Amino acid sequence: MIIQESFAAIGLALIVFLASLGGSAQQQVARLSLKLGRRDTLLVVAALSAIASAAMHGWMGQFLAKLLPEPWQGIAAAIVLVAAAVRLMLPKIIQHLAEPTYSLGAITLVLAARQIFAPSGLVIVAAGICGMALYPVVIAGALGGICGFAIAWQIPMLKNGKSAFPNVRLTSAALIIGCAIFIAIFV
Prior knowledge:
Elements lengths: L1 H19 L3 H13 L3 H28 L2 H20 L14 H11 L4 H11 L4 H21 L11 H21 L1
Helix pairs in contact: 1-6, 1-7, 1-8, 2-5, 2-7, 3-5, 3-6, 3-7, 4-6, 4-8, 6-7
């Protein structure tokens, strides 16, 4: 059982990482990294917002799992995953900040707000609905989000284009739709 939970958590972290690539929060970190320089505090703030977002989404998944009867949990998780895939397939329209702020609190709030309905967060909610324990869901989701932010912070040149990581986002959407179909049929 522990091995299955471990593999599920690793898979969740990978899917969250792939779903976060090219997202609005990751692009914001890349943009701030270019404008403000690669300050360590920017990465710490991004990591804290990823942890808070994963905790919120994990809790929401657990709440919905307790709220829904067991036969409906798989269907609800599949619907949430399809919503995440649709969000990944839509083009990103992001408002750029006119001038960067040096306030870590403001940066944290902006990053947290951009992650509320992000596809990576919806994947975490679906994992919580499927019955994964709260701590593995939160840890895996946070690791996936932190890795996405670390790439944006370390290599911001990847994020300068209008549509960053379009092929990865479409591949992630296809992978998530495959997971949704599997969950709808077998869970």
